[in-house]
Amino acid sequence: PIAYDLKEAYEIEKICKINHITLLVNFFRRYENSALEIKKRLLDYKKFRVIVYYSNGIINNGSHFIDLIIFWFGYPNKIKRIKGQKLSSKKDFNLDFKFEYKDGDVNFFSWEEAFYSNYFVKIFTDKLRLDYDFNGYITKSYDIINNDKFKGFKKIDQSPEIILNNLNQEFKSVYDYMDSLLRAKELKQINNLETPRIINTLLRNYDK
Questions:
Q1: Could you report the per-residue pLDDT of 112-163, keeping only the tens digit for each?
Q2: Are 123 and 69 in contact (CB under 8 A)?
Q3: Which of 37, 50, 109, 144 has its CA 20 to 30 A from that of 135?
């Protein structure tokens, strides 16, 4: 994450603009192979629902998955907070919340890091199912096929395609993207504040 609060994030961005510095937040998942492949496979759908689990705070780790969902589906039409609690001795929160879109929704659920780390995304569309599991290290794509037992119905194929990732080179992927930006004749405008704005909305007026 860029900062613990939106005011600080704005100040960082302002300083960078004044000094002609290109700012890029290290949300590395949007630059790795399996996340890019998922984005390609999400170009054609009529309906979708998504489940996201994260742990160890919305700012610390949940922010990465907020950014990933924005990368795949765009900025949500509505953001709804469900429930949450402040993490002890930290400036962070475990929150359950929901993104609403025209053709679907994304439900985020927090998990207690004290039990074990838990990060995964399950995507259901009318065309396929995608599992971005174990923090992205295991990604599977399931086709939707005709049900051979019940005519007129469909089911999820039980033989998934494994989508390879390059998370072992996660920082190289970010550096390569930064290099392409710096080599470009015109630097592409990067929106670094989409995720901080969402977190600010979720934490606004929160009982601390």
A1: 888 999 999 999 999 999 999 999 999 999 999 999 999 999 999 999 999 9
A2: no
A3: 144
Cα dihedral value 198, 200, 203, 208, nearest 10: 160
For the entire predicted model, the pTM comes to 0.89
Structure tokens at 193: 């504040």
Q: DSSP states of 190-206 as a string?
A: ---SHHHHHHHHHHTT-
* Cα–Cα separations (whole angstroms), residue 69 to 13, 72, 100, 138, 158: 22, 5, 12, 17, 25
Residue with tokens 């015109």: 186
| Alpha carbon distances (Å) from 208 to 40, 86, 90 | 40, 7, 11
Tokens 């907020």 belong to 66
Q: Is 81 exposed, middle or buried (0-12, 13-18, 19+ CB in 10 A)?
A: middle
In the chain, the amino acid numbered 72 is W
* One-letter amino acid for residue 195 of the chain: T
10's enclosing H/E stretch is helix 6-18
Vertex 83, ends 1 and 199: CA angle to 5°? 25
